[in-house]
Amino acid sequence: MTVDHLSGGRLAVALGAGDPSARPEAAGVATYAPGEQVARFREFAGLVDRLLRSETTTFAGRYYGCAEAEMIPGPVQRPRPPVTIAAHGPKMLRIAAELADSWSQWGGYDVVDEQDFFDVTRERCARFDELCAGLGRDPKAVRHSLVCFPPLTPWESTGYFHDMVGRYGGVGIDEFVLYWPQSWREAPHEDTVCEDVCTDLMPGLRH
Fold first, then answer.
1. Are residues 15 and 61 in the same domain?
2. What does pTM read for this prediction?
3. Considering 78, 107, 128, which residue would you say is the last residue of a domain?
4. Which domain holds residue 205?
5. For each successive 10 residues of the chain (207 residues), what is the average pLDDT?
6. Contact between 105 and 111 (Cβ < 8 Å)
7. Exposed, middle or buried, 58 (CB in 10 Å: 0-12/13-18/19+)?
Protein backbone atom coordinates (compact mmCIF):
# COMPACT_ATOMS: atom_id res chain seq x y z
CA MET A 1 0.00 0.00 0.00
CA THR A 2 2.90 2.30 0.80
CA VAL A 3 4.46 1.66 -2.62
CA ASP A 4 1.13 2.46 -4.30
CA HIS A 5 1.13 5.86 -2.61
CA LEU A 6 4.83 6.58 -3.16
CA SER A 7 4.53 5.73 -6.85
CA GLY A 8 1.37 7.76 -7.38
CA GLY A 9 -0.72 4.70 -8.15
CA ARG A 10 1.70 2.67 -10.26
CA LEU A 11 1.85 -0.48 -8.12
CA ALA A 12 0.95 -3.81 -9.72
CA VAL A 13 0.75 -6.91 -7.53
CA ALA A 14 1.94 -10.24 -9.00
CA LEU A 15 1.06 -13.54 -7.33
CA GLY A 16 1.82 -17.19 -8.04
CA ALA A 17 1.78 -20.53 -6.27
CA GLY A 18 5.53 -20.95 -6.77
CA ASP A 19 7.85 -22.76 -9.16
CA PRO A 20 9.49 -25.86 -7.63
CA SER A 21 12.70 -25.05 -9.52
CA ALA A 22 13.11 -22.04 -7.22
CA ARG A 23 13.87 -24.55 -4.43
CA PRO A 24 11.93 -22.97 -1.56
CA GLU A 25 13.54 -25.43 0.85
CA ALA A 26 16.84 -23.61 0.31
CA ALA A 27 15.31 -20.65 2.13
CA GLY A 28 13.65 -22.77 4.77
CA VAL A 29 10.20 -22.35 3.22
CA ALA A 30 7.79 -25.26 3.69
CA THR A 31 6.74 -27.24 0.62
CA TYR A 32 3.35 -28.88 0.11
CA ALA A 33 1.79 -31.44 -2.19
CA PRO A 34 0.51 -29.79 -5.41
CA GLY A 35 -3.15 -30.00 -4.38
CA GLU A 36 -2.54 -28.32 -1.04
CA GLN A 37 -0.24 -25.75 -2.64
CA VAL A 38 -3.06 -24.67 -4.97
CA ALA A 39 -5.64 -24.68 -2.15
CA ARG A 40 -3.38 -22.50 -0.03
CA PHE A 41 -2.83 -20.14 -2.93
CA ARG A 42 -6.56 -19.82 -3.63
CA GLU A 43 -7.19 -18.79 -0.04
CA PHE A 44 -4.16 -16.48 0.03
CA ALA A 45 -5.07 -14.73 -3.24
CA GLY A 46 -8.64 -14.20 -2.08
CA LEU A 47 -7.45 -12.75 1.21
CA VAL A 48 -5.00 -10.38 -0.53
CA ASP A 49 -7.86 -9.21 -2.73
CA ARG A 50 -10.01 -8.49 0.33
CA LEU A 51 -7.22 -6.76 2.24
CA LEU A 52 -6.43 -4.43 -0.64
CA ARG A 53 -10.09 -3.49 -1.10
CA SER A 54 -11.08 -2.93 2.54
CA GLU A 55 -10.08 -0.61 5.36
CA THR A 56 -10.62 -3.41 7.90
CA THR A 57 -10.68 -7.15 7.23
CA THR A 58 -11.49 -10.13 9.43
CA PHE A 59 -11.06 -13.55 7.88
CA ALA A 60 -10.80 -17.10 9.24
CA GLY A 61 -9.77 -19.58 6.58
CA ARG A 62 -8.39 -23.07 6.63
CA TYR A 63 -4.81 -21.90 6.12
CA TYR A 64 -4.76 -18.14 6.73
CA GLY A 65 -6.60 -15.62 8.83
CA CYS A 66 -6.60 -12.11 10.22
CA ALA A 67 -8.60 -10.18 12.80
CA GLU A 68 -9.53 -6.56 12.11
CA ALA A 69 -6.49 -6.06 9.90
CA GLU A 70 -6.34 -2.38 8.96
CA MET A 71 -5.25 -1.07 5.57
CA ILE A 72 -5.46 2.66 6.16
CA PRO A 73 -5.12 4.77 4.14
CA GLY A 74 -6.54 2.79 1.26
CA PRO A 75 -4.80 2.47 -2.10
CA VAL A 76 -4.49 5.25 -4.65
CA GLN A 77 -5.86 2.87 -7.27
CA ARG A 78 -9.48 1.89 -6.78
CA PRO A 79 -10.91 -0.48 -5.84
CA ARG A 80 -7.35 -1.85 -5.39
CA PRO A 81 -4.05 -2.08 -7.29
CA PRO A 82 -4.25 -4.47 -10.25
CA VAL A 83 -3.37 -8.10 -9.53
CA THR A 84 -1.54 -10.43 -11.91
CA ILE A 85 -1.80 -14.17 -11.30
CA ALA A 86 0.52 -16.71 -12.92
CA ALA A 87 -1.41 -19.86 -13.89
CA HIS A 88 -0.99 -22.88 -16.13
CA GLY A 89 -2.97 -25.86 -14.79
CA PRO A 90 -6.80 -26.10 -14.71
CA LYS A 91 -7.22 -25.16 -11.03
CA MET A 92 -4.84 -22.23 -11.18
CA LEU A 93 -6.41 -20.99 -14.41
CA ARG A 94 -9.79 -20.90 -12.68
CA ILE A 95 -8.35 -18.87 -9.80
CA ALA A 96 -6.85 -16.40 -12.26
CA ALA A 97 -10.09 -16.20 -14.23
CA GLU A 98 -11.96 -15.38 -11.02
CA LEU A 99 -9.58 -12.91 -9.33
CA ALA A 100 -6.94 -11.56 -11.70
CA ASP A 101 -6.80 -8.32 -13.63
CA SER A 102 -3.93 -9.83 -15.59
CA TRP A 103 -3.07 -13.48 -16.26
CA SER A 104 0.56 -14.53 -16.79
CA GLN A 105 1.85 -17.73 -18.40
CA TRP A 106 4.89 -19.23 -20.10
CA GLY A 107 5.29 -22.42 -22.08
CA GLY A 108 6.68 -24.82 -19.49
CA TYR A 109 9.77 -26.93 -18.95
CA ASP A 110 8.32 -29.78 -21.01
CA VAL A 111 7.90 -27.65 -24.17
CA VAL A 112 10.17 -29.09 -26.85
CA ASP A 113 10.14 -26.50 -29.65
CA GLU A 114 8.54 -23.25 -30.80
CA GLN A 115 5.51 -24.91 -32.37
CA ASP A 116 4.84 -26.77 -29.13
CA PHE A 117 5.16 -23.48 -27.22
CA PHE A 118 2.62 -21.87 -29.52
CA ASP A 119 0.18 -24.78 -29.37
CA VAL A 120 0.30 -24.87 -25.56
CA THR A 121 -0.23 -21.11 -25.36
CA ARG A 122 -3.16 -21.17 -27.79
CA GLU A 123 -4.87 -24.00 -25.91
CA ARG A 124 -4.39 -22.28 -22.54
CA CYS A 125 -5.76 -19.00 -23.87
CA ALA A 126 -8.88 -20.73 -25.17
CA ARG A 127 -9.37 -22.56 -21.86
CA PHE A 128 -8.82 -19.38 -19.85
CA ASP A 129 -11.30 -17.41 -21.95
CA GLU A 130 -13.92 -20.13 -21.47
CA LEU A 131 -13.38 -20.00 -17.70
CA CYS A 132 -13.75 -16.21 -17.66
CA ALA A 133 -16.97 -16.40 -19.68
CA GLY A 134 -18.33 -19.09 -17.38
CA LEU A 135 -17.70 -16.80 -14.41
CA GLY A 136 -19.46 -13.89 -16.10
CA ARG A 137 -16.24 -12.01 -16.89
CA ASP A 138 -15.27 -10.60 -20.26
CA PRO A 139 -12.01 -12.39 -21.20
CA LYS A 140 -10.82 -9.27 -23.02
CA ALA A 141 -11.03 -7.32 -19.75
CA VAL A 142 -8.25 -9.52 -18.31
CA ARG A 143 -4.77 -8.88 -19.72
CA HIS A 144 -3.19 -11.99 -21.25
CA SER A 145 0.55 -11.85 -20.52
CA LEU A 146 3.19 -14.17 -21.98
CA VAL A 147 6.71 -14.62 -20.60
CA CYS A 148 8.96 -15.02 -23.65
CA PHE A 149 11.04 -17.92 -22.34
CA PRO A 150 13.10 -20.36 -24.48
CA PRO A 151 12.55 -21.85 -26.99
CA LEU A 152 11.32 -18.39 -28.05
CA THR A 153 14.16 -16.12 -29.20
CA PRO A 154 12.54 -12.67 -29.43
CA TRP A 155 15.83 -10.90 -30.12
CA GLU A 156 16.69 -13.07 -33.11
CA SER A 157 15.75 -10.29 -35.54
CA THR A 158 13.24 -7.45 -35.88
CA GLY A 159 11.30 -9.64 -38.31
CA TYR A 160 11.18 -12.48 -35.80
CA PHE A 161 9.97 -10.11 -33.07
CA HIS A 162 7.26 -8.65 -35.29
CA ASP A 163 6.05 -12.10 -36.37
CA MET A 164 6.08 -13.36 -32.76
CA VAL A 165 3.91 -10.49 -31.53
CA GLY A 166 1.51 -10.93 -34.42
CA ARG A 167 1.25 -14.69 -34.07
CA TYR A 168 0.66 -14.73 -30.33
CA GLY A 169 -1.50 -11.64 -30.47
CA GLY A 170 -3.75 -13.60 -32.79
CA VAL A 171 -4.54 -16.11 -30.03
CA GLY A 172 -5.17 -13.48 -27.36
CA ILE A 173 -1.79 -12.43 -25.93
CA ASP A 174 -1.66 -8.68 -25.38
CA GLU A 175 1.44 -8.31 -23.18
CA PHE A 176 4.91 -9.75 -23.70
CA VAL A 177 7.42 -10.09 -20.84
CA LEU A 178 10.93 -10.04 -22.29
CA TYR A 179 14.29 -11.11 -20.89
CA TRP A 180 17.32 -8.92 -21.44
CA PRO A 181 19.28 -9.76 -24.63
CA GLN A 182 21.78 -12.61 -24.25
CA SER A 183 20.15 -13.88 -21.06
CA TRP A 184 19.88 -17.40 -22.48
CA ARG A 185 22.69 -17.58 -25.05
CA GLU A 186 25.78 -15.80 -26.30
CA ALA A 187 24.54 -13.87 -29.31
CA PRO A 188 26.01 -10.35 -29.59
CA HIS A 189 23.60 -9.40 -32.38
CA GLU A 190 20.73 -9.52 -29.85
CA ASP A 191 21.83 -6.21 -28.32
CA THR A 192 21.45 -4.43 -31.66
CA VAL A 193 18.15 -6.14 -32.40
CA CYS A 194 16.79 -5.10 -29.00
CA GLU A 195 17.74 -1.48 -29.64
CA ASP A 196 16.14 -1.55 -33.10
CA VAL A 197 12.97 -3.18 -31.78
CA CYS A 198 12.60 -0.67 -28.94
CA THR A 199 13.33 2.33 -31.15
CA ASP A 200 11.62 1.46 -34.44
CA LEU A 201 9.15 -1.37 -33.86
CA MET A 202 7.57 -1.09 -30.42
CA PRO A 203 5.98 2.36 -30.88
CA GLY A 204 3.86 0.96 -33.69
CA LEU A 205 2.91 -2.18 -31.77
CA ARG A 206 1.59 -0.46 -28.63
CA HIS A 207 -2.19 -0.25 -28.30
1. yes
2. 0.91
3. 78
4. 82-207
5. 96 89 80 91 96 96 96 94 96 97 92 95 98 97 96 97 97 96 96 96 83
6. no
7. exposed
